[in-house]
Amino acid sequence: MNLLVAKRSWMLAPVVFLLAVVLLSLTWALMEPQALRAAFDADGHSFFETLTLPFYALIVPTVWLCCPFAGSPKRKTLLCAAVSCVAVMAVVKELDLHLAAMSALYPDVVANFKGTPFKMRFLTKSGIPLGAKALALAYFVLFFGVFAVLLAYFFRRLMKGFFRLHPVAWTMCFFGGSGVMVQICDRLPAWYRHAKELPKSDVADSFTAFCTAFEEGGEMLIAAFALLAILQAHAIYARDNPPPEFADL
């Protein structure tokens, strides 16, 4: 655990991120675009997507066995349960289980709705059954809602910890940065196609392959940084007697 809480352990997350960027860039440079798309993105069934799932699933046992939170047993239980909820919903998202459930329960609604039903306009559209809206709302609350509450709860401490070189704060910043990278790389091909007036079925080229590599790679990084933050926080706060420089965080 010394590496996780050493004097310069705040640098661990930047180093991991830099190595990942280098590896993803080399992969993109060496692979043909079509081969890269097949290996990284096949509607949840590619090799890389399958490899990412255990990282998210591992968050649940890790957060309970290596509790990263200090305080009373009730506080620890609530926070571990919230982290587990987000991790489980991340697995649901990766496997598209929410879409499968909606399609199985409300096939006509899904067939007649343009795009994915898990968008805000689905909740506000008239004529949608209440049960379908409740399912979509539950997905939003259990995934994004619980995550937003956790982020708001720790936001001040994360910002304070960033400037004090707290290793967990730095890891969580790169966790967030990886999430931003995923969203940008997810939208860039569509923006590019619209700008060039290209069809959605256009063949994979070098640019779209690059976006695919960094989108899927970023999703793995999100899970990896979550696991790293849990282990770092556990090493610091497990005995409820953290180092003096981190005692108030």
Chart the SSEs and their pairings.
Elements: H1 2-5, H2 12-30, H3 33-40, H4 47-65, H5 73-95, H6 97-105, H7 107-112, H8 120-124, H9 130-163, H10 167-196, H11 206-237
Helix pairs in contact: 2-10, 2-11, 3-11, 4-5, 4-11, 5-9, 9-10, 10-11
What's the helix-strand series? HHHHHHHHHHH
Helix content: over 70%
Distance separating the two termini = 19 Å
Strand tally: 0
Mean pLDDT: 89
Based on helices, strands and strand pairing, what is the structural class?
A: mainly alpha
Portion in beta strands: under 5%
Question: Stretches where pLDDT falls below 50 for ≥5 residues?
Answer: none
Biggest beta sheet attributes: none
Helix count from the secondary structure assignment:
11
Taken from the alpha-carbon principal axes, the silhouette is globular
Task: Give a quick set of tags describing it.
single chain, 249 residues, mainly alpha, 11 helices, globular
Structure notes:
Helix content is 76%, strand content 0%. The longest helix is centred in the middle third of the chain and has 34 residues, at 130-163. The model has no long low-confidence stretch (mean pLDDT 89). The chain contains eleven helices and no strands. It is mainly alpha-helical and 249 residues long.
